[in-house]
Structure formats: C-alpha cells, structure tokens
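User: Before I run my own analysis I want an independent prediction to cross-check against. Here's the chain; please return only the structure tokens and, at the end, one sentence I can use as a sanity check.
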Amino acid sequence: MINWSLGVTDPRSTLRLLLRAFSPADFAPDSRIPLLLETARHDPRIRLSMRPYPSDDEVVDAGLASDVLLLPYLWGSHSGQLELAFDLNLLPVCSRTGHLPEQYRHHQGLVSEPEWFDWSTGHPNLFGERFLTAVENATARMASTSRGLDRTFLDYRAQEHRSVIDAYAQIYGGGR
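Assistant: Structure tokens:
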C-alpha cells in the first residue's frame, strides 16, 4: 500500500481495500498495521472498508467495482482470489510465486494473462519497484480494454464445477 501511495501519482487513481477486522494480535509490537492505517489516513485516494469477515457478496461487489485485483503475495500455493479475478474478468496483478502461474496456465486462452512481477530474486529494495511497474503496466492494459463479465469463461467455469461435483459424488457416494 505504501508503494502504491508513493509511486502512483495520478490523482484520479483509487486503491480500495476490503479488510478483515483486526484483532489485538494484529497490533503486536512488530506489527505493520499502524503504518498501514497511517498511510491510508494521509492519502485520500485510499479507501478502506472493514468487515469482521467479509461475505462472499461483499467480496464480489468489491471486485465488480474494481479494474484490477492486486495480489502481492510473498509466498503461496493456490489463490482463490486469483480465481475470483478470472471469474469477474479482472486483470490480476500478482507475484510469480507458488502455483499461481500454473493456475493461470490451467485457464490459458480463456482469461487474460495476469500482470506478473517477481519477488523471488534480487535485492528486496527492488521489489517495490517491480510491483509499481506491474501496476503501471496493468493500468495501461486496462485503458485499452473493455470490461464486462465473460460469458464464455463463465460457461466454462460452470462445466468445470459440474466436473468437480461429479468427481466428488463418485468418491463420496450419491453419484449423479
């Protein structure tokens, strides 16, 4: 968020964050939460919304009000948020970590390729620069793209879900 706040200078840009409510553990002595809140307080382009546990509808509504979905993971294996970006036809901006590239390849040809950045090599001071470059590239890509829900992908997704349900039914009984 700090990289975005200091690096994206367009006054028309907005960063919307839907957060899970904080707990006392989030304010441990080494916590970065106070810095996050202070940054948001001083940058009027940052919009924070907090829910105890955001509902599926709240997450979808936040996605539909967005152009890109930022996934600045330092590590991970699979991301439901990446799948959400694909479902909502959002351009994901994500680190090339875990199995995120394989997730994209699974749907390749049906979804836009994410705007990738790399946090796995080089000096950590370069990571913010890489992230900002990816955000700038995504902004340029979105400026030349019309966006709406992609019915072809949603039909594919419905078939994919039916296949998963059928496989589970065979394993756990009550087959279709």
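Sanity check: The mean pLDDT is 89.
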